[in-house]
UniProtKB/TrEMBL annotation:
Protein name: Xaa-Pro peptidase family protein
Organism encoding this protein: Brevundimonas terrae
PROSITE patterns (UniProt xref): PROLINE_PEPTIDASE
Keyword S-adenosyl-L-methionine attributed: no
UniProt domain Peptidase M24: residue ranges: 162-367
Domain annotation Creatinase N-terminal: ranges: 19-153
Length: 389
């Protein structure tokens, strides 16, 4: 079977400038002087700078007038200047601090006198505490509402990157099923998946790869051992890759051999729950209504109730983009209205304790008229990738 992954262009610097303009207007509307972005994916989202977290503060200030200032240790100046000078990153003044100096005082001095500072919600606690000491906690605000409001609605460029990433992972899942053999270890399957992701243009898959055999599939995040595959084992593989920082995350569950009648029944219930969740995703509906559609169906089949087992032990889905798990989520209590551009996983897992678990995970995005699958859901238990259709 020939595989083709749709092409996708990186996020342009013009798109990042547009994001910053939207953020600046939101800051102004909230009476905030600036947003401090730490070494998180929000820093990458707005500026294009992809920086590793450490015990030192590196980040950016986005001001309400649209200015961008980077903050970094003095010894990182040349590296930051090089990265932010490329064609896909936003240029800006670079503020530096020496090792004996306080980066928090440096940031505080760059904020308007008496102004309030929003802080990226994903920064380490030491950043918030340091800024509170430097400015006073009363001048700090949670930046999450502003960031989530923007990042949760993907552009056409972002959706194209997600489409490419997910197409690659679905093909890797298909190849993995065909490659499996009796006695193979979960660690060997992970190595195979990583190599196949790289062959197809993804940024590897070893950073996120869950492979479970047999009753380890009862555990939503898998067992701890390096288990060997046996004939008639249930196989659950949950994996993904990155394309320009955007995530895929796809799960398939099937049997290496002959499935029991009980497993077949549960698998069909899982597939139907996933389909009902998809159908419930409508523009303007609350995120929690999608979870309710899957959970109510499963309760009617005798599972649960709620998060009780046998049943669905976790939310039906999560947002996805630059982070593999992003707000909002398809979960009870999340009343966020669904909007065009929002992207979610759809994975209402069923766990039968001490026997097996079944998770079918695909993702969808919201178009103006409703949900659209990124990847085609499992065709059937015996032909999960529709190869015999």
């Amino acid at each position: 079977m020939t595989f083709f992954a749709p092409a996708a262009s990186p996020v342009s610097v013009d798109e990042r400038h547009a994001r910053i303009r939207v953020l600046a207007e939101a800051l102004k509307a909230q009476g905030l002087s600036a947003m401090l972005l730490g070494p998180t994916n929000s820093l990458r989202y707005y500026t294009g700078l992809d920086w590793h977290p450490s015990e030192r503060l590196t980040g950016a200030l986005v001001h309400s007038d649209g200015r961008v200032q980077y903050v970094c240790p003095r010894f990182e100046l040349n590296k930051i200047a090089g990265v932010t000078g490329n064609a896909y990153a936003v240029a800006g003044e670079i503020l530096t601090w020496e090792e004996e100096e306080s980066p928090f005082a440096l940031v505080a001095g760059a904020v308007d006198a008496g102004g309030r500072l929003a802080v990226d919600d994903q920064v380490a606690t030491f950043v918030w505490l340091g800024m509170a000491r430097a400015m006073g906690a009363e001048r700090l605000a949670d930046g999450a509402p502003l960031i989530v409001a923007q990042r949760s609605v993907k552009s056409a460029t972002e959706i194209a990157l997600l489409i490419r990433a997910k197409a690659i992972t679905l093909e890797v899942q298909r190849r993995t099923r065909r490659w499996l053999k009796e006695g193979v270890l979960t660690s060997q399957v992970k190595q195979f998946i990583d190599a196949e992701h790289r062959k197809l243009g993804g940024e590897g898959g070893s950073w996120f790869c869950l492979v479970s055999f047999g009753d380890d599939t009862c555990l939503p995040h898998g067992g701890e051992g390096d288990r060997a595959l046996k004939v008639d084992d249930v196989v659950l593989i949950d994996t993904g890759t990155l394309v320009d920082g955007y995530h895929s995350d796809i799960t398939r569950t099937y049997v290496f051999g002959q499935a029991s009648e009980e497993f077949r029944r549960v698998w069909e219930h899982e597939k139907q729950a996933q389909a009902l969740a998809f159908d419930a995703a409508r523009i303007g509906a609350e995120c929690q209504s999608v979870d309710a559609a899957a959970r109510d169906y499963l309760t009617a089949q005798g599972y649960g109730p709620d998060y009780s087992l046998p049943g669905l032990p976790h939310r039906t889905g999560h947002g996805i983009g630059l982070d593999i798990h992003e707000a909002p989520n398809l979960v009870r209590g999340d009343a966020t209205p669904l909007r065009a551009g929002m992207c979610f996983s759809n994975e209402p897992m069923l766990v039968i304790p001490d026997k097996f678990g079944v998770r079918l995970e695909d993702h969808f995005y919201m178009s103006e008229t409703g949900p659209v699958w990124f990847t085609e859901p499992s065709h059937s238990l015996d032909d999960p990738f529709g190869e015999n259709v």
